[in-house]
Recover the amino acids of this structure.
């Protein structure tokens, strides 16, 4: 039976030793409650909920899946009871405004709970996870009346939220969407159209579901400039603010999917449903990005979650499974064979998972602190700087961590050998559940175009320079540490090369815009490897300093140093081939006539 234990020791390392969370929270106006004792207590209770309530439902939820009948979805056994406990524990309200019933803690603390819940049971975590995006969207763009009626219910967890973008004929190209919004005499709108791939669009966990829907007004211009955003509840609120009359919408079907079987992925039909405009007309896509950016960070957590889950379970198996003798001599002479963890090939797979999980955790929670600064920074300058860094890092976190999370999940299955392909061990589910992370909230290729095209080249490299300056300052601060140079020297070299590659690609793109699309994915992966190298170098610095103090848990810091060294010597060299491929040009992709791909 697979298992999950929240890696509290590593989470505390990232928060307290790497990112200095205490100083971070003390610097935020309004974050006085986020004391070390408070954060530690939240982590302990969140770990109990993840381990004892959610993790045991992961495999059973996958086997049972969601049931769809007469337009209604029934979630797997135990899901509703787990959601009721989640609401009773106050978890939905953790990082939201006290004005609407929230606890007022910083967003980064909510991301910690998202990591634990998501690793324990990703399919379940999607139900409350999407609600956070709906809350942030309403808080940023909703009217006071909308907040009063809808936001408090979402914050309490009594109602949940969704994001309704995609339609049968358009995926990423939202400029093609056809859902219509007709004005009504009472100031509301009648929403008509079909949306597909709507996660948690219908379920039995909450009293109401608030759909955040993109649609077009009758006089809207064509393309993305003619999209508006609407709030469309499953049940219209009554005079007391409770779920009242059913709205004219419904779930037409649920998808039969490769993974995340415990979460309902719905086809939603809106048949003149009553909706309420959020934000200005024809500015819906701008407002929706409040939702999308948080959803992308949430999906980055999914990559981390599947890497961590795969690592934990394959590590346990590798310590116990006996196969062959170590090449350097028997390690278990009293047994018939040695545990497979002695074999270099198995260690390579385990360390790859560990490096991506722990490095990804540092990146995610660094981004969490940037989210805090954007929302609660003490000055305009601090908020603007954090917003620029976050905008640059979001596509990297989303795409790189899901790509490497899937790699790690596959490595976890491989450690098990043939047993990994068998359902009872849970490793094949981890691979299936992970695969969607590279597709939704914008595919890896879309994130890559966003990074290279919009975030980097369109700003003449300014977005990149903000982060490379962070890396440069770190490397320069370590100049006097000769031992640490094994990490800072290659990091500084790649940091410089990153800028040189960007300039080179910018020059090529001026002659042919296809060069951007041809290089983008390699550029994103290169960027991700360098970003993770920065966090592993920082982890090595902290660990060396701690080891000099002779700590009781020296083994933990030694493991950090060894993993950092593994990352720099075995994984970071992937940047060499990526620099070659991104500079190889668009011709090797575009020269072949489309009609000649096959004969």
């Amino acid at each position: 039976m697979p298992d999950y234990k929240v890696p509290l020791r590593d989470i505390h390392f990232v928060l307290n030793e790497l990112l200095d969370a205490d100083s971070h929270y003390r610097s935020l106006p309004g974050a006085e409650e986020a004391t070390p004792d408070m954060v530690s207590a939240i982590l302990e209770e969140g770990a109990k909920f993840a381990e004892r309530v959610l993790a045991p439902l992961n495999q059973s939820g996958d086997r049972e899946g969601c049931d769809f009948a007469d337009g209604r979805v029934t979630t797997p056994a135990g899901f509703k009871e787990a959601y009721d406990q989640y609401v009773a524990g106050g978890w939905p309200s953790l990082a939201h405004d006290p004005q609407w019933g929230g606890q007022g803690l910083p967003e980064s603390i909510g991301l910690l709970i998202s990591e634990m819940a998501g690793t324990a049971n990703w399919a379940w975590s999607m139900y409350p996870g999407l609600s956070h995006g709906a809350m942030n969207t309403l808080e940023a763009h909703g009217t006071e009346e909308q907040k009063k009626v809808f936001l408090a219910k979402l914050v309490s967890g009594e109602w949940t939220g969704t994001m309704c973008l995609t339609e049968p004929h358009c995926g990423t190209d939202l400029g093609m969407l056809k859902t219509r919004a007709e004005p009504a005499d009472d100031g509301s709108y009648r929403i008509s159209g079909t949306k597909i791939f709507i996660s948690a669009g219908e379920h039995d966990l909450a009293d109401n579901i608030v759909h955040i829907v993109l649609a077009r007004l009758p006089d809207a211009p064509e393309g993305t400039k003619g999209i508006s955003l609407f709030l469309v509840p499953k049940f219209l609120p009554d005079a007391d603010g409770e779920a009242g009359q059913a709205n004219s919408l419904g779930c037409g079907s649920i998808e039969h999917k490769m993974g995340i079987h415990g979460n309902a992925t719905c086809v939603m039909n809106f048949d003149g449903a009553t909706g309420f405009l959020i934000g200005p007309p024809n500015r819906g896509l701008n407002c929706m990005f409040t939702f999308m950016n948080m959803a992308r960070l949430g999906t980055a957590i999914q990559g981390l979650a599947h890497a961590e889950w795969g690592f934990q379970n394959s590590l346990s198996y590798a310590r116990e499974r006996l196969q062959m003798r170590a090449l350097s001599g028997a390690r278990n002479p009293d047994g018939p064979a040695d545990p497979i963890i002695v074999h270099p090939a198995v260690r390579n797979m385990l360390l790859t998972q560990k490096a991506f999980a722990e490095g990804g955790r540092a990146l995610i929670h660094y981004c969490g602190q940037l989210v805090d600064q954007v929302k609660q920074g003490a000055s305009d300058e601090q908020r603007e700087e954090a917003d620029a860094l976050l905008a640059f890092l979001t596509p990297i976190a989303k795409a790189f961590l899901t790509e490497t999370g899937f790699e790690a999940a596959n490595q976890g299955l491989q450690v098990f050998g043939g047993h990994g392909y068998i359902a009872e061990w849970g490793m094949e589910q981890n691979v299936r559940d992970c695969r969607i992370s590279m597709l939704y909230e914008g595919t890896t290729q879309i994130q890559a175009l966003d990074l290279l095209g919009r975030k980097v080249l369109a700003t003449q490299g300014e977005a990149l320079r903000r982060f490379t300056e962070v890396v440069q300052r770190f490397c320069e601060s370590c100049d006097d540490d000769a031992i640490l140079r094994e990490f800072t020297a290659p990091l500084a070299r790649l940091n410089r090369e990153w800028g040189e590659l960007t300039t080179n690609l910018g020059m090529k793109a001026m002659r042919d815009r296809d060069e951007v699309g041809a290089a983008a994915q390699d550029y994103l992966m290169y960027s991700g490897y360098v970003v993770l190298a920065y966090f592993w170098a920082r982890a090595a610095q902290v660990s060396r300093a701690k080891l000099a103090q002779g700590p009781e848990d020296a083994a933990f810091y030694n493991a950090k140093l060894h993993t950092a060294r593994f990352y720099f010597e075995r994984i970071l060299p992937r940047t060499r081939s990526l620099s070659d491929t991104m500079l190889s040009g668009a011709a090797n992709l575009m020269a072949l006539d489309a009609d000649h791909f096959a004969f």
Summary: Residues 443-588 form one domain.
